[in-house]
Amino acid sequence: MLTIYPSLMAADQQKLEKTIQLLEPHCQGFHLDVMDNIFVPNFPWTADEVNAIASKINNIVWVHLMVQNPIVFYR
């Protein structure tokens, strides 16, 4: 069975909830990248944003931490 977890990294932030609603029936979950601008040069999602996004999703949320000090992101 094919399992699909689309990344929300390139999604339009203004239409994120609508994008999730459109995709969710067709996938098993979503992929979110958390970057700290140290380990890698980008920072698309904060911990608060990940929690807010996850609260809108009924399926699995895979979070990929690309950070120098992951304990900072633990809550």
How does this model look, in words?
It is a single chain. It is built from two helices and two strands. It has a two-stranded parallel sheet with strand order 1-2. β1, α2 and β2 form a beta-alpha-beta unit.
State mean pLDDT (0 to 100 scale). Answer: 86
Could you give the order of strands across the largest sheet? 1-2
- The tally of beta strands, per DSSP, is 2
Helix content, binned percent: 10-25%
Largest sheet: 2 strands, parallel
Distance between the termini: 34 Å
Strand and helix order: HEHE
Strand content: 15-25%
User: Quick one: overall form?
Assistant: globular
Structural category? alpha+beta
CA gyration radius, whole angstroms: 13 Å
Question: So how many helices?
Answer: 2
Poorly predicted runs of 5 or more residues: none
